[in-house]
Amino acid sequence: MKLKLLAALTLFSLFGCTSKKPDSFPEKGYISWLPASSWEDALLTGNGTMGAMVYGYPFEETIILNHALLYLPNEAPLLPPNMAPYLGEIRKLSFEGKWKEVAELGVKIWEKEGYGEKKWTDPYVPAADLKITMPPSNVDKYQRMVNFQTAEAIVSWKDENGQFTRKTFVSRADGVMVTQITGTSKINTNIEIIKHPHSWEQNAYVSPLISNSYTKMLNDSTLQYHCEYKKAHIGTPKGYDVAVRVVSNGGEYRANGNSIEIKNADEILIFTKIEPLYEIGQYAFNNLIHQMDTLNANYGILLERQKKTHGEIYNRLSLNLYPTAEEKQMTSETLVLRAKSASSPGIMQRQFEAARYNILCATGTNPPNLQGIWSGTWTPPWSSDFTHDGNVEVAISNLLNGNMAELMMAYFDYHERLLPQYRINAKQFYGARGIHIPSHTSTHGFNNHYDETWCLEYWNGAAGWTASSFYDYFLYTGDTAFLRKRAFPFLTEALEFWENFLVTGDDGKYIVVPSYSPENNPLEHQWQNGINATMDVVIIKQLIQNWIAAAKLLGVDNSTISKKTEMLKKLPVYQISNEGVIKEWIWPGFTDNQSHRHASHLYGLFEIPDEDIMNSPELLEAAKQTIIERMKIRKQQQGGEMAFGMCHLGFSAVNVGDTENAAEILKYLSMYYWTNGMATTHNPGNLFNMDISGGFPSLMTRMLINSRPGFIDVLPAIPSDWVKGDASGIKARGNIEIEKIAWNAESVYLALSSAEDQQITIKLNDGLNVVDIEVFGTETNVKNKQIITLNLVKGKTIEIKWKL
Does this model's pTM top 0.90? Predict the structure, then answer.
C-alpha cells in the first residue's frame, strides 16, 4: 500500500495533474487520472482469446499481452492414484469417525504412487510485453480511459510537443490487437516486444521452465517474439509466437536493434497477434504476418467491425439507476474511494457495467479463469486456474441472465475437451463409471491435487454442478438440439458416477462417503473429509431431477426414468441444527463452523431454488438464518476473503426473499473489491480476481428479475435506495426476454416477449403496495394484484403496469 501511494504521488508530480473536468467521458466506461502503479490497476481489453493490460504511461508505455491457452507448463499430468482398492477402508474409517486417519490414508495412497508433494495446476502467465516509447516532455493534461462498448483502452495527454492519443483494443471480429497512435504534431516512437520480466525471487522458478525465448526483427516494420517451453506436455503448447506489424502513415522506419523506430509519422497503427505452437520446431510468424497484412489498415473500419461483435453483445443489456451528474463523471480512483464510504445506486450501476465488460472480454476460447484472461505475474495465486468449487461458476453466472448465452460455449467446450480425463479420474479414484471433475484444472483434467487438510480428492460434486449449467443453458435458450447432443450426455455421465458411488445405509437411505463440503470442517476437528455433506446430497438431487426432466423431453423410456425417480426417494433430507440453521453435514457428530467463507450447504438456493426449502416454512426460515450466520464473520472483516462466497449468499438471499441481506451483501461487494482499473478482487482491496465480475452483475440482475421454469419474480429483492430505475435485455428461463422493466415510487412497468408459446406466472415483490394493474397484449388470470398468470405467444410483446 505504501509503495502504491508513493507511486501515485510521484505520478501526480510528474504529470502536474489538476482538477480539470475529464474530457470525452464514455457513455459506458471510465476515466482514470493516473497511470497504473501495478499491473492490477491496468486498463483491460480482450476478445476472449487475447487479453491486454495497458499501463497508460505517455512516454514509456507497457502493454502486457496474454493468451487464453498460455499456461506455463510446470507439472506434467499424472495418472491419478488408484484409490479404488482402498475405498472400503476409507469408508470404514469414516463410519468410525476416524477423520484424521482418513485424511492421512489419502496422503499415503498418493505418496505410495510417487506423487511426492502436492501438485498445483500449470499457472496462467504473461505472453510478452509490448513497449512503446516516445520523447518525454512536461505533461500539461493527462487521462486514460476504457470504453466498455468498444473495448478501447485509451491514453491521451498534452505535452510541449502537442496533443497525443494512443488507443488499443483486442478485436473480437479480427482476432488481433490494434493500437493506434495519433497527435497534433509529428509522432516519434520506438516499438519493441520483449519477454515479460520476472523478479529475482521468481527466477529459480521461471528460468528452468523456458528453454528458449528471443526477439527478432523480420524487417523494418515487423517484429517477432518466440518462446519455447522446457516442460511442455500433452495438455499444453510447445511454445508460442508473437508477431507485431507496424503501419505508419507518413514518416520513416528504421531498425533500432531489435526494435522499430519511427520518425515524423502522422499516424501509427500497431497490429499484434499471438499463436500457440503445438509442434517442436514450429513457427507461426509468416502465417501471423500474412493474416495481419490482409487487414484493412484503417482504424475506423476495424473499430466498426469491433462494434458489431463485441459492442453488439455488450449492449444487449442496459441498466439505468439514474446516477447523479457527479457519479457519471467520477474517475475510477474517485469512484473506488467513494464506494468504500458511501456506495450508491449510481456507483453500483457503473460497477455493473465494468464487471459485465470484464467477463465479456475474458470469455471466448475458455471461460474466465481466476484472473479472467489477464496476468501480470509469473506466479499468480492458485495458478490463476479454473477452480470448480465455486469460483468459475460465479464468474459465468451472469452469462445467461445477462443475455450473453453464446459465451457459455467456452465453458461447455472446455469441459468436453477434458471428458476423457474426467472418466479416468472416476475409475482411478472409485472404480466408477461416469466422470469426476477436479477442484482445480488448467491444462488438463486429471485430479492431481491432494492434501491432508485440503483433501479435495474427496470432493465429487463438481461434475454435477457443471451438469446443472449445461441444463440451465437449455432452460434459458430452449435449444433442444443442445439438450440432446450435449447437455443430456453430460448429465448422464455425471449421474452414472453417483449410481456407482453411493452406498445404502441400514435405513434404506443413500450415504455419501467420503464426502466433502468446500472447504470447511466441523468444529469438532480440523479435517475436511466427512459423510453426507449437504452440498453433495443436493447436487445429486438436482442432477437426478434435471436428468429426469430432460429424459422426458427427449422421449427416454419410462422404465429408465422410474429407476432415477427411485433414487430421489433414497436421498437424505435437509436437517436443521439446534441453532436453527441448515446443517452443513447430514450426519451426527458434525457441528457447523459458521466462521467460514463458503456456504456450500445453501447450494440448493444458488440458482433455481430447491422446492424442498421453498415449500417448508421451517427450512425457509433456517436458510435465512444460515445467511445471517455466515455474514457475521464477513461483517467483521469488511466483507472478508473470497468475495465469490458472498455472491452465493446474495443469490440465496434473493431466492428466499431476504431483501435486506441481499442488499447488504451487494453493498459489501460494491465497497471493498475494486481496483483503479475497475477490475475486481478476491479479498478486500487485494488479489486481482474476476469471480465477482460475474457475480456482482448477476446478483443485481436477480434483484430485478429472478426466474425459474414457468415463473418470474419481478423486483424480488430491490434495495430500498433504488427508488427509480430501468433495465432492458435481461433474460429469463423459458427463452423469455425482458424488453424493459422500469420502476419509480408510483408504478412498475414490465415488457417481455417469449421465443415460444407458453404459460407463465409473474409475481411482483410482496413488499410493494399495488393499487391497480393493467395488462396489454394477452389474456390474463389475475390471482391478486401481485400475481398474474399469462399466456405468452411466440414473438409477441406483453406489457404489464402496476400502479403503486
Answer: yes
